[in-house]
Amino acid sequence: MNGTIQRLRAEIRFDREALARRVEELRNLKLSSRDPAGSAQAAVALHHAYGSVEALMERIAREIDGFLAQTAEQARDDG
Predict the structure, then answer these.
(1) Is the overall model pTM greater than 0.85, yes or no?
(2) What total number of domains does the chain contain?
(3) Is residue 19 part of a domain?
């Protein structure tokens, strides 16, 4: 496996672990409509969970974009 893929896999693993921590945090919350602090904590945890997923997708998109650009450049050079 090349270094780029190994690095991407490690970064994705990190993002997935961050997401799992946030999901676990949400599972442990005892939410009540009468508890604004608990609702705020849930909102922050959801925001961080979304951020983890967003970071994961951005990493993948950057790699795909870079690969496609490199492939197009090679095709031009070969053609």
Answers:
(1) no
(2) 1
(3) yes
